[in-house]
Amino acid sequence: MIEFMGKQLENPLIASSCIATESVSNVLRLAGNGVQGTILKSCADYERGRVSGKRDFAVDKKLGYTYASAPFESEILTLDECLEMLRTLRPQTEMLLIPSFTASSLAPEDWIPACQQLEAVGADGIQLDFFYMGNLIGTDGLSGCIVSLLRELNTALRIPVMPKLNINLPKDYIMPLLVEGGVKYVSLLDSVRSPYFRKTDGIYHISDRLDAESTSCFGHWQLPLTISYTYTAVKHGLKVCAGGGITCADDVQKLLAAGAVTVQSATFLTRYPNRWSKLFDE
Predict the structure, then answer these.
(1) Helical H runs in 141-235?
(2) Structural domain that includes position 20
(3) Which of 75, 175, 179, 266 has the most CB atoms around its CB within 10 Å?
């Protein structure tokens, strides 16, 4: 058995925030396939307007790249939608439920009220999704802002928070700040911004429809980055929920060997929604 965020898990696999965790039916489907923990699709405290554009998704199986792009309102749940998901799920399942929340700044007042609401309806922990805030490095007083936010969240909540990192927050810079802020758990590694490629007549070209700044690229090539971040986090005493391009059981074993407590996957789930058990059966 594995203890993570107060839950006892029979295996270390957790469904990462992705298409597979954005609805009640999807999460219950995962539970029925043996998944014991899930990070819900990220949400934000905003009012959804008329959505323009659509979610786009492509896989290059030969090169191992996966690309995804969507307007913010197609990609991100509203806080109300996530709260309703938790209200519906909590009476139906004992699985580890970790909503993911994002805000537009590091100001505690932009995070604490929403996180308290998520806690009140049954969250076991909360992932703090810094991905949608862009590149924070270079912001005046960034280190102090991160530590202050984490300390205030830990004071305001009874459940743990788990920052989700990306390569815009260098590992040797951010890990000591998480410890200073009182964090015990860390989630990594988020997808990387990249141009979106299309294949026409056997030739790849950058799409002229999708903005590279709004496009995520993820896949097996991320694994060395994730392993490096995992080693650094473990060195600082953090409990790691590692992920980033998990495509087979061997990838899971590598991250567990690097010191991760649990391993999350979005790439595998998105590409093979009915084959999740392959990761832990092997």
Answers:
(1) 142-156, 171-180, 223-235
(2) 2-281
(3) 266
| Whole-Å CA distances, 69 to 6, 198, 225 | 34, 13, 22
Pick the closest to residue 218 from 265, 182, 171 (CA basis).
Answer: 265
pLDDT attached to residue 65: 61
**How far is the C-alpha of 189 from the C-alpha of 272, rounded, in Å?**
20
Q: Strand locations in the chain, DSSP E?
A: 2-4, 7-9, 13-15, 37-39, 43-44, 56-60, 65-69, 77-78, 96-98, 100-101, 126-129, 161-164, 185-188, 192-193, 197-200, 203-206, 215-219, 239-242, 262-265
Question: Distance of CA 7 to CAs 31, 37, 43, 140, 211, Å?
Answer: 15, 9, 23, 38, 40
- DSSP letter for each residue of 188-208: E---EE-PPEEEETTEEEE-S
Q: What is the CATH number of the domain that holds 268?
A: 3.20.20.70
- Nearest-Å Rg of the Cα atoms of the chain is 18
Are the C-beta atoms of 113 and 144 separated by less than 8 Å?
no
pTM: 0.88
Q: What is the pLDDT of residues 176-189, one digit of tens each?
A: 999 999 999 999 98
